[in-house]
Amino acid sequence: MKNETTAIHSLERELGVRFPAGSRVIGTHREDGMDDYLGIKVEMPAKALADFLAGCPIPKERYAAGNGGLLGPDDGFWDPNKQPKLRTGQAQLTGARALNIGYDDSRSDLAIVYVVNHGT
Questions:
Q1: CA 8 – CA 4 distance, rounded (Å)
Q2: Strand partners, 78
Q3: Are 76 and 59 in contact (CB under 8 A)?
Q4: Taking the alpha carbons of 6, 57, 95, 77 in that order, is the dihedral positive or negative?
Q5: Are 50 and 93 in contact (CB under 8 A)?
Q6: Which domain covers residue 18, as residue numbers?
Q7: What is the spatial distance between Cα 26 and Cα 63, in angstroms, rounded to a whole number?
Q8: Where are the beta strands (DSSP E) in the chain?
């Protein structure tokens, strides 16, 4: 459990977000190089989603229905295009970086969240 907590905190620092208690990492994808990329899929308690989003640098009014090309194609665990109520938003970060977040809150028990931090 301690190793999982340490791993989540490390991912939070890299992504620039803070996941609420009860969050579970479903999978991560990383690409290093000139254009680096870190994507993570997380399940979190549905009741914690609003606080999670409020702590992110993407204002609530910037989220729109659909993928909008921000999260890329489905591949294995990464399946944003299969979510029935996907909403996505993007924020430009310092250092030529971008943060993309997508979430589906159609279930009453948990929310599915996709977070991508990438730069050039």
A1: 6
A2: 75
A3: no
A4: positive
A5: no
A6: 2-119
A7: 22
A8: 24-31, 37-45, 64-65, 87-93, 97-104, 110-119
pLDDT at site 10: 83
What pTM value is reported for the model? Answer: 0.90
Residues 18, 55 contacting (CB under 8 angstroms): yes
Q: What is the pLDDT of residue 34?
A: 73
Extract the tokens encoding 27. 């999978």
**Between vectors from CA 85 to CA 47 and to CA 117, what angle results, nearest 5°?**
80
Using CA atoms, how far apart are residues 25 and 101, in angstroms rounded to an integer?
Answer: 15
In the chain, how many domains are there? 1
Question: From first to last of its 120 residues, what are the pLDDT tens digits of the chain?
Answer: 455 666 777 888 888 899 999 999 999 999 887 778 899 999 999 999 999 999 999 998 899 998 767 898 999 999 999 998 999 999 988 888 899 999 999 999 999 999 999 987
CA-angle at 14, arms to 38 and 109, nearest 5°? 75
